[in-house]
Amino acid sequence: MAQAPALPGGFELPLEPRLPRIGSIDQVAVEERAAALSRRSIKRESKLFALDLAVRMMDLTTLEGADTPGKVAALCSKAMRPDPSDLTVPPVAAVCIYPNHVPVALERVQGSGVRVASVATAFPSGQSPLEIKVEEAARVAEMGADEIDMVIDRGAFLAGDYARVYDEVRRVKEACGEAHLKVILETGELGTYDNVRRASLLAIAGGADFIKTSTGKIQPAATLPVTLVMLEAIRDVYEETGRKIGMKPAGGIRHAKQAVQYLVLLHETLGVEWMTPDLFRFGASSLLNDCLLQIRKEKTGRYQSPDYFTID
Amino acid sequence: MTRLPVKKTYKLYVGGAFPRSESGRTYEVDGANVALASRKDLRDAVRAARGASSTWAGMTAYNRGQVLYRVAEMMEGRKAEFAELTGDEAEVDEAVDRWVWYAGWADKLAQVLGSSNPVAGPYFNFTVPEPTGVVGIVAPEEPPLLGLVSRLAPAVVGGNVAVVIASEHRPLAAVTLAEVLATSDVPGGVVNLLTGRKRELASVLAGHMDVNALDLAGAEDEDGELERLAADNVKRIVRNGDGQSPWHAAAFLELKTVWHPIGV
Amino acid sequence: MTEIEKRQDRSPVPSAFDYAPAPESRDIVALEDRYGLFIGGEWVEPKSGEYQPTISPATEETLAEVAYGGSEDVGLAVESAREAFDNGWSDIAPSERAKYLYRIARILQERSREFAVLESLDGGKPIRESRDVDLPLSAAHFFYYAGWADKLEYAFPNRKPQPLGVAGQIIPWNFPLLMLSWKIAPALAAGNTVVLKPAESTPLSALLFCDVVHQAELPPGVVNIVTGDGRAGAELVQHAGVDKVAFTGSTEVGKEIQRTVAGTDKKLTLELGGKAANIIFDDAPLDQAVEGIINGIYFNQGHVCCAGSRLFVQESVYDEVIAKLKRRMGTLRVGDPLDKNTDVGAINSREQLERIQELVASGAEEGAEIYQPPCRLPEKGWWFPPTVFTNVAQSYRIAQEEIFGPVLSVLTFRTPDEAVEKANNTPYGLSAGVWTEKGSRILSLAQRLRAGVIWANTYNRFDPASPFGGYKESGFGREGGLHGLAPYLEFDE
To answer: Which chain B residues are closer than 8 Å to C443 by Cβ?
Structure first.
C-alpha cells in the first residue's frame, strides 16, 4: 500500500488530487453520445475533405513478426504515394514499424515529409524490466525515429500501482530526446471507461505528446466511445493547463466511413484546432485503401473495386 | 404428364443450420427420410444452445417480442404446408395464435412476475425474473404442431434457449417449424430441434450436466428414471399443464432479488 | 546520435469543418391539398364547412388545408365510435383485437420514414429525432399494448376488467404521432373505441394514420379523427356520449377540462405541464451529465412537458459545469428540420415563439444573465437559439413558469436536502433528474422528489413499458406500462 510521505507540516498529497478531476464516466451515456455522433451525415465536399484529412492523418502500420526490409520498403512507398493514378491524394503522416526497421524506413521516406514512428518498450505487452524498456526507447531515438509509440505497464496499472505507471512514462519521455512520444494505453485491457480516463491523465501527466488507444494486437482495439473518453480527458487537460495533447485511435478501423465518424467525434469534442496530423492520427493499414476507394467514388460518382488500388 | 415434385430432406436444426445426423442414420415417416439424431448430435445441440444463450438473454425484451412475432408471421405464411402435415387446419390456426400470444408476453413478464419489495429498513429491494438458461424439451407426440408450440414458446419468450426432442412419430411439422425459425431473425442456437428415438435421446438430455431445466411433457417417465438423472445437476423439472399461461413461462425463470441502501 | 532532418510539425489547421447539407428527401410524402374528417372509417366533409391551412414552421409554407370540426362533426364522430363499440369491437375476441394492433405497429414500422418526414415538416422537429425517437416509440407503443389486449385478466387479477366505451382524446403538438400512439394503443387494447382530436398546428401525421387504419382493416368507427382547434376539443370533452376523457396539454386547459367533467360520470386522465428540476451533484460524471442537461432541455426544442428546465448545480462544481455546458451548446446545430445533421429544429408556431420571447425578456429584466451561442438562424420560419440563464433566483418567472422552449434556468444548491426542497418547491410534479455516482443518493432522492418520473444519470427516456405521468398540477393518471391500461378500464372490484 502506498504511504503518503510526511512533510514538515502535514503530508504530501497522493497522485490523485494533483491531477485534473479524475471523476468517473457513465458507460451508457458515453456510448450513446458516441453513437449519436456516428450518425452525423457527412456528404460531398465535407466528405472529401474528411477523407483527404484521414489520409494525411494516417500512421500506416506494419507490426508483424514476419516483417522484412522488403515489406517495410514497400510500405514506405505506399505511404509516400498512396494512389499513383491520383497525385492529388496526399502522403500519409507516418509509417509505424518495429525498431529493427527504422534505418530502412528512414532511408526510404527521406525528403518526403512522411515521418518514421517506431514502437518500443517491449511492445506489445510491456512486461519487461523497466531498464530494458527505457534503453529500447533511447536506442530507437538514437537511430533517428521521429516518433516513439510506447506501451504502459497494464499489469502495474491494474494492480493499482499508478505511481509506477507515471514514472515509466516520465522516464521513457526523457529517453526520447527530440522524438515525440505516443503512449499506448491498451484500452481493451483496462476494463472500464473510468480506467481509460485515469490512464489517459496519468500518461499525459508523465509527458505524453499523444495518447493512443491500442497496440492492435488484441480485441477490442479502438472504439468510438473509448476515443470520446480520451478526447474529453485531453480537453480537460487543455482547460486546466493550456497544453494540447494529441490522440491516436489504432486498430479495428478498416473502413473510410469509420474514419469519418472519428473525425466528426474529434470535431465536436475538441473543435477544428485538433483537426491536424500534429494532433490526431489513425493507426491503421487496410484503412488507407478504403479511403482511396471512397475518394475516387466521391470524385467519379461510381462505386469502386479494390482491384484498382495497389496493396503496397 | 404430371410434374415430378422436388422432395424435401428433413434434417436436424442445430446452431441455426440444418445438418444431417453425425451418425448418418435416418428413419422413415410418411415416405420421407427424417434424420435420426444421436447422442453426439444432442451434445452439439446443447453446446450450440449454450453459445446462443447470452445473445438471446441479452436482447431487450421488446426485441425478443419482435422476433417472436416475426416467427408468427412466417408461420402464417406457411399455413397450407403445416395444414397438410398435421391434417388439421384448426390446429395450425391455434398454434399460430398461441405463438402470437406468447410473443406479446416478452416485455410484460417482468411487470407481472417481478416486484419492488417493501422491506423493513432503508433499502430499495426489487425482484426481477431472469432466464434459467438452457431448457431441454421433450415434445408431446400429439398434436404435432400445437403440442410443440405450447412447450417451446413459453420457454423462449423469457430469454431461455432450447434443445427440443420432437415428436418421434409425427416429426415433419416440427422440422417445418424449425425452417420457420431459421427465416425469422431468431439467432442461431436459440432453438435446436432433433428428430429421432425419443427414449434414446431423452435420457441423454435428462442427464446432460449443462442443461438447466427440463420439460418432460412428451416423455413417459413412469419409473422416474429421467427425473433421477436430472437431479445430478439439480435441473428444474417443469410440469406445465395444457393451454397457455404466463406461469408456464415463469416455470423457466429464476428470480433475482437485489438490495441497495437509500441514503445521501 | 545520427543526423535527422528536423521536419517541423506545422501542418495547416483547417478553418472549419462544415457539414454539407444532408437533407432527407420530401418526396416520400404525398400530401393532399385538403383533408376532411375521418369518421366511421370514411373521409367526410366537415358539417362546419370550415378548413384552415396547416403550416410548416421552418418555412412558413402552407402544407395543406385541414377540416376544423364543429359540434355536429364531433357528435357524428362520437356516435360512430359508439356504434362501433356496441356492434363489434367490444365483442370480438381479445386476441383478434390484439392482431389489429400488431398490424398497426408493423405498418408504422414499414412506413416509418414517410411518417418521420411528415412529422418534421408539420411540426418543426429535427428529422433525426422523428426518425430515431418518435417513430420507433410510436410503433413500439402499439406493439406493447397489442400484447396486453388478450391478457387483461393477468394485469388485473380478480378484478374482471371491462372497457369503458367511447374515449375522447385530445393531444398536443410536441410529439403528434407519439401522443396519438400513447392514447389510441391502450384505449383500443382495453376494448374501447376512440375519437381523437389532434393539435391544431400538427394534424398531418394523425391524418396519415387514418391510412394505416385502413391498411390494417380496422373495423370502421373504432378510430375517428376530428381535426380542429380548441372548440372541437371542448365539444368532445363535454359530449354526453363520451365515457372517458384523456388530455395531454397545458395545465391551464387541463383545469378547464377537469371543471367541465366535474359532476359527470366521465373518467378523466390529465397529462399537463412541468418545470422539472435536473440536479447535478459534484460526483456526477460531468461530461455525461452535461449531455444529459442538453438532452433534457434542447431535445425537441424544449417543447417537452418533462423537460429539465431548471438546472440545479451543486456549487462546488458550478464553474466547471457551466463552462462545459456553454461549450457544448456551441456545437448544437439549429436549422432545417429535414437536414439530418440538425440538432434543434423550428419553434412550432408563431404563438409559441412569442411566448418564449416574452418569458426570456422577463428573465433579463428580473436580473438573470443570458447566454446564447452564436447561431445563424434561417430568414423564414420561427426559430429560437438554445439559451441558458445563470444567476437565476427561484422567484423569477423563468424559474416558475413553463417556457416550453429551448431555455434553461440555472440555480445552485449546497446539500442534498436543499436540492430536494428547491426541486419540490413548485406546483408542478411531472419529472426530475438526478446526477450522481452514488447509488444510495439516487435512491434517497428518488424517494423524496415529488415527481411522477425520476431519471437518474439519464434524461428523457421513454418506453412503452414504463409508466409516465405527474404529481400535483402536472396531472394524474399514468400512460405506459401495465398501469397505463387502468384508466381505460372499469372493474367489478
So the answer is: 124, 260-263
